[in-house]
Design a protein that fits this description.
single chain; alpha/beta; six-stranded mixed beta sheet; 5 helices; 42% helix; globular
Length: 133
């Protein structure tokens, strides 16, 4: 709810880490609601969505266009569902491409994803590693 996001914002401001905060969700509505409270005052937003297609991109572009100021926006797909076409679609639309559920994979898997343009990874243990471009 908006009230919960307001409490989170107050805590992050109190700790001095608001600009470092990044919201990631499978729910597009969650991102929209969070934006009402955080706007572009945080690092950005990532939509976890394995079903990346033109409709998904247009919806997220509309989200970006509604922002008062730009911030980082990404779309995250489960690593095994990445294709060159999906990565290109995400990057061509101006979003960063992220992969989730990547822990304990061989280097070759990371290399495959890097070559596609994936720049950020989320591990199974929910620790994130961002390689910002």
């Amino acid at each position: 709810s908006e009230e919960n996001w307001k409490r989170v914002r107050e805590m992050l401001e109190r700790l001095g880490i608001l600009k470092k905060f990044h919201i990631k969700s499978f729910g597009y509505g969650v991102l929209q609601n969070a934006y009402k409270v955080f706007g572009s005052d945080i690092d950005g937003y990532t939509w976890d969505n394995d079903d990346v297609d033109e409709e998904t991109i247009k919806k997220y572009e509309a989200f970006r266009d509604s922002m008062s100021a730009p911030c980082r926006l990404g779309i995250e797909i489960q690593f095994k569902n990445y294709t060159e076409e999906k990565a290109k679609m995400i990057r061509d639309a101006g979003f960063f491409a992220a992969a989730w559920n990547i822990a304990r994979r061989d280097y070759d898997e990371y290399e495959r994803l890097f070559k596609m343009g994936v720049t950020e990874f989320t591990e199974d243990n929910h620790c994130s590693m961002g390689l910002n471009y």
